[in-house]
């Protein structure tokens, strides 16, 4: 692929109000000439969009070639998919820059297909990175050899959580609910800087402080708060619940939440008060913090500022909150990424 992905000719950018988002990006100077893009290989694909590696000429500096990631709607995307894509594009611009959010460089909305141009992060996502630490040798399933080989310390694991909490604290300050926070949606930049990505489900809730999802199909059940699963309600506090699941992923090096349980069983278990169990290598104080994120009542959950401060205090105290020599990968389930995305209840 040298010039562009397939053109989604059946989609018209003026349909059903999408033009509002296009006009916003054009007014705010984000429009980038698509002739200055040279597409390379596919680097990711989701339900309704594909992400390509590309070269963008003069996007950051005149005459300079920059490696970028370009998100493009698939040809078979529905009109609702298209609306979500345009909202993601608009939201990126409205949020502005933050160290722990993926940066938007520009967009191409003058014709179909619409392009969302973002910074390119070659180090993959956090879930992949954590799983790369798992020793493939079945006779050596402790963390000791992995920490020696990869130079990743328990403090760095806590550091991932702190960075994500900082990014989510920023989103909350902008009245934005992410709705799909998971380790697979955290990309890694240079020096393992965490960057929250995938704003396709995110919503601006500045007016109501909450968002009600009017329709649903396949959803990330294992990361969702009970009020989201049962009432389709999303707030910053439902993102806090998801953050607790992400921390559990980090602590267990990218394992699959609620192993051995169907989505229906997960929902039933959560309703009866079941929560992910305390890992053997995890200190009580960290687990209590996770459980606070999983309070049934959203009002009882901490906010992201409180979560961040708590994690920073733990890291500064350095009291052995994670005893990774006691970590045993056989206690956890590691599925292929596609099997852990979204499920029907």
Strand order of the largest sheet: 1-2-3-5-4
Protein structure class = alpha+beta
Distance between the termini: 38 Å
Count of DSSP H/I helices? 10
Proportion in helices: 25-40%
Shape: globular
Sketch the major β-sheet.
5 strands, antiparallel
Radius of gyration from CA coordinates: 20 Å
Total beta strand runs: 11
Plain-language structure description:
The protein is α+β, with helices and mostly antiparallel strands and 345 residues long. The protein is 33% helix and 15% strand. It has 10 helices and 11 strands. Strands 1-2-3-5-4 form a 5-stranded antiparallel beta sheet, with helices on one face. The longest helix is centred in the middle third of the chain and has 20 residues. It is globular and about 55 Å long. 39% of the residues are buried.
Name the descriptors:
alpha+beta, 11 strands, 5-stranded antiparallel β-sheet, about 35% helix, about 350 residues, single chain
What is the compact description of this entry?
The protein is an alpha+beta fold and 345 residues long.
What topology does this entry show?
Elements: H1 19-27, E1 37-45, E2 49-57, E3 65-73, H2 79-95, E4 104-108, E5 115-119, H3 126-131, H4 144-150, H5 154-173, E6 176-177, E7 186-188, E8 194-196, E9 203-204, E10 211-212, H6 226-231, E11 233-234, H7 236-251, H8 263-271, H9 284-293, H10 304-317
Antiparallel strand pairs: 1-2, 2-3, 3-5, 4-5, 6-9, 7-8, 10-11
Active site: 180
Catalytic activity: L-tyrosyl-[protein] + ATP = O-phospho-L-tyrosyl-[protein] + ADP + H(+)
Protein name: receptor protein-tyrosine kinase
């Amino acid at each position: 692929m040298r010039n562009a992905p397939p053109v989604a000719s059946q989609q018209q950018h003026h349909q059903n109000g999408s033009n509002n988002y296009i006009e916003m990006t054009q007014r705010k100077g984000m429009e980038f000439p698509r002739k200055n893009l040279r597409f390379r290989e596919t680097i990711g694909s989701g339900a309704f969009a594909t992400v390509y590696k590309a070269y963008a000429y003069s996007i950051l500096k005149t005459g300079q070639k920059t490696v970028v990631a370009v998100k493009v709607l698939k040809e078979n995307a529905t009109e609702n998919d298209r609306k979500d894509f345009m909202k993601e594009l608009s939201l990126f611009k409205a949020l502005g820059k933050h160290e722990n959010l993926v940066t938007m460089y520009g967009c191409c909305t003058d014709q179909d297909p619409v392009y969302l141009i973002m910074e390119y992060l070659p180090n993959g996502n956090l879930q992949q990175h954590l799983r790369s630490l798992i020793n493939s040798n079945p006779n050596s399933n402790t963390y000791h050899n992995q920490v020696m080989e990869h130079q990743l310390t328990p403090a760095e694991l806590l550091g991932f959580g702190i960075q994500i909490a900082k990014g989510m604290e920023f989103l909350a300050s902008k009245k934005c609910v992410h709705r799909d926070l998971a380790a697979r949606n955290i990309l890694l930049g240079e020096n393992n800087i965490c960057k929250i990505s995938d704003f396709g489900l995110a919503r601006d809730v500045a007016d109501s402080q909450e968002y009600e999802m009017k329709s649903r199909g396949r959803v990330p059940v294992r990361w969702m708060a009970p009020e989201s699963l049962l009432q389709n309600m999303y707030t910053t506090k439902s993102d806090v619940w998801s953050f607790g699941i992400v921390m559990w992923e980090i602590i267990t090096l990218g394992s699959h939440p609620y192993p051995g349980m169907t989505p229906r069983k997960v929902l039933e278990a959560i309703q009866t008060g079941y929560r992910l169990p305390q890992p053997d290598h995890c200190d009580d104080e960290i687990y209590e913090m996770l459980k606070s994120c999983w309070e049934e009542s959203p009002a009882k959950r901490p906010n992201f500022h409180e979560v961040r401060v708590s994690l920073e205090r733990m890291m500064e105290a350095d009291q052995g909150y994670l005893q990774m020599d006691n970590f045993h990968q056989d206690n956890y389930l590691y599925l292929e990424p596609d099997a852990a995305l979204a499920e029907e209840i």
